[in-house]
Amino acid sequence: MIGVERQNSIPVEDARPEGLRILWRQYTRNHSAVVGSIVVVSIALLAIFAPVLTPYHPSDDFDLTQTLLPPGSPGHPLGTDLNGRDLLSRMLFGARISLTVGLVVQAISITIGTTVGLLAGYLGGRVDDIFSGVINILYSFPSLLFAIATMSVLGPGLYNIFLALGFIGWATMARLVRGEVLSAKSRDFIEAARASGATPVRIMLRHLLPNCLGPIVVIGTLGVAGAIMSEATLSFLGLGIQPPAPSWGSMLSRGREFIWMAPHLTIIPGVAIFITVLGLNLLGDGLRDILDPRLKE
Amino acid sequence: MIPVLLGITLITFLVMQVVPGDPLQLMVDPKGRELDPETIRAIKAKWGLDLPVHLQYLRFLSNAIRGDLGFSYRFNRDVNITVLERIPATATLATAAMVLAMLIGITLGIASAVRHRTWFDVGSMVFALAGVSTPIFWLGLMMMYLFGVVWKVLPPSGYGTWRNLIMPAVALGLSSSGVLARLTRSSMLNVIRSEYITTARAKGLSERTVIYRHALKNALIPVITILGVQTGSLLSGAVVTETVFAWPGVGRLLMESIMNRDLPVIQGCVLLIATIFLLMNLVVDINYALIDPRIRYR
Questions:
Q1: pLDDT tens digits, residue range A123-180?
Q2: Are A137 and B4 an interchain contact pair (Cβ–Cβ within 8 Å)?
Q3: Residues 199 to 238 of A: which have CB under 8 A from any B CB?
Q4: Which one of B141, B234, B279 would you mutate to disrupt binding with A, by most A Cβ within 10 Å of its Cβ?
Q5: Which of B3, B8, B130 lies closest to A133 in CB terms?
Q6: Least CB–CB distance from B142: residue in A143, A232, A270
């Protein structure tokens, strides 16, 4: 008997590193995840080291004698904009705005969504009815339309973007977590935890939450891409971040007025949005294959 | 459906309530001259703006049900006429984009599932992901620049002929086509692995018959479910596309009204788009039961 117990206890000790090793192996074999993370990490590094990489300030350094220079001009590898500001500097600092919006909005969505999803799924009954009702209403509103309407009321600005996108974004997360909790709730390990006297809070945080982490990471990553795209769209429409702040969307919106003379002002910010969103989508897709194959539809 | 619709009207109403600035001033005198308190009181009483908020909501709701969405400050006429006359343009654009998205998306999805793990499959999935990751407004501007300005093969913007429709429809439909292609492919792959397909093949049916007569029917069920959701993103996307191409639809009206703070029209547009979206989802749900007999038997 004792021998059997010892044998059983050894693999349990080793389970975590072994699990991580399997995940790592799956990760390195997943082209989508690898390419996606290379893209995302590169953009993050460019954003972090923006002040080191470029001598110009993105909005204060302008030179009205050097406006609308094409890419490849001396001192301005990507050219200059209408006010003679260095486009490369604005692109690099623009990456900061995009990534900040993506991360903050997803942090809000994940916090609210996970809390609501856990409560609704675990407690059930009246609580679930109320939360599910709210989730359904928010979910049945086209999210970009909701953001446009909200921004038209709140007015433009970075913090309002966090509010508008975070406020609708959590519904997706809550729906997902609630579903995961509902399917995990009736399983034996939750029953066992309850029988051994764990409090509801402990069951939710220690037993149910870890079960939802895979899907949360996947949907969160794709959500960062969605938030970046939404911010760019709102800023393009003039409802998001206002010039002279270097948001890619508002740069594109200004650039389109000069598309005949200086198409690079429209092309380059668009390519940046495209690459960033594509990288995040690739990463999210790859993570889905690795962490939660069931999500794949 | 009804609670959701009520929720949407409530959100739309509340959002408009917290707007800073007095719309009344704009409505009566766009130049912003001071009005005497007596006139303001009279106008407020006429439009019910002196009532408590919850009564204002009930008034708004009962008017909305009867098709009265209020009065546009800017156009100086009924909101529902203003909004309704913009519907054909948006409907044309959204329908064209949806048809295009379904044609490209479903064809590409089937073709890459049949050629699973080939270069064609990889290529079309890269295309689909690129489609999903391309900003609509940027794609629109790039097409406008290349086809409209550099090569001059299509009118860069405007409304009226089918030539005007091509670029906006492509810009709007491409991202949905990516979503549909990805979904069709994975759904098709699932179905192809099922036993009844093996049976069909074992009977000696041609691959063509197996795919199009047997597999496709089941593979399209999840695709149809997502069409409702796609309508929502198409309608939101229409706001952007119409702005880029100066297309005179509901989306452009919404943006113009936002810029002019014409609140009743904003409210009307949002309500209209959300309702169409809900109705589309209802239609999809009903069709879902019609198409998939398993749902009815349950």
A1: 989 999 999 988 888 877 788 888 888 888 888 999 999 999 998 889 999 999 999 9
A2: yes
A3: 225, 229, 232-233, 236-238
A4: B141
A5: B3
A6: A270
Cis status of the peptide bond prior to A244, with omega within 30 of 0: yes
Domains of chain A: 29-51+79-296 (1.10.3720.10)
Instruction: Write the CB contacts of B121 (distance below 8 Å, at least 6 apart in sequence).
Output: B112, B113, B115, B185
The two tokens of residue A171 are: 């519904």
Strand partners, A73: A76
What mean pLDDT is predicted for residues A36-44? 97
Instruction: In whole angstroms, give the CA distance from residue A278 to residue B133.
Output: 5
Q: Are the Cβ atoms of B15 and A143 closer than 8 angstroms?
A: no
Q: Which of B285, B139, B291, B166 is nearest to B226 (CA)?
A: B285
Report the alpha-carbon distance of residue B57 to residue B63 in Å, rounded. 10
What confidence tens digit (pLDDT) does each residue in B137-170 have? 999 999 999 998 889 899 888 888 899 999 999 9
Q: Of the candidates A145, A267, A282, which has its C-beta nearest B235's C-beta?
A: A145
Structure tokens at A219: 């949907």
Alpha carbon separation from B93 to B10, B220, B226, B233, B234 (Å, rounded) = 29, 24, 19, 13, 9
pTM score = 0.89
Residues A212-227 have pLDDT tens digits of: 898 899 999 999 999 9
